[in-house]
Amino acid sequence: MKLLGGYLADFIALLFPELCPACNTSLVAGEHVICSDCRYNLPFTNFHTQPGNIVAQQFYGKINVEYVYALYFFNKGGKVQNLMHHFKYNGMKQIGNVLGNIAGSQLKQNPIIDTVDYIIPVPLHKKRLQERGYNQSACFADGLAEKLNATVELNTLIRKKATATQTHKSRFARFENMQEVFAVDKPEQLAGKHVLLVDDIVTTGSTLEACGIELLKVPGLKLSIATIAYAE
């Protein structure tokens, strides 16, 4: 019976092959969600070994951060863009867990991240969350938490209002667009804690900056940032 089940699974896979969302090639036995070639050869930033990396520099003089990280470089038309499209718009939320695991394996090598108490994803507005069905940053946070000694916290950083898309806006316009969007509920829970704020893609950093401004109002809070990709 077990052998028959194996043949049936192989037959179904032949008719409806599971494809890698980054490169669109068929996954083979033992591969999960993302093919082995993409797992090892997507454009890693290696920011976990570069404390003063180019993303960290975006926040200098704006918010006080302990550590800033992005897993991949995002290039238009590249495999990371394919991956993120499937993740955000095609319902493949399992991608977030896989990428969180990969990022967590890198980040746990850093002693600064070892002190993180809470992982907080950038929240979606209730309307957007209802439309999409999940918060992609929360999926990434769950994957990170599996590798890091930290707890995902979904209820303290809240999004008070929906915002227009940030696409095609200048850095200043993006920052203005995010003013008074976020707030911290029950700040006493975060007092004196080290928070890892996570998002999917960072470009100008305006969304993360707006979140960071609110979080850093909490007494004694230390802030680090991690994202899946950095778009130059």
TrEMBL record:
UniProt similarity note: Belongs to the ComF/GntX family.
Gene3D superfamilies named in the record: 3.40.50.2020
Pfam family, one: Pribosyltran
InterPro entries associated with the record: ComF/GntX_DNA_util-trans, PRTase-like, PRTase_dom
Domain Phosphoribosyltransferase: 137-229
Lineage: superkingdom: Bacteria
Designated name of the protein: ComF family protein
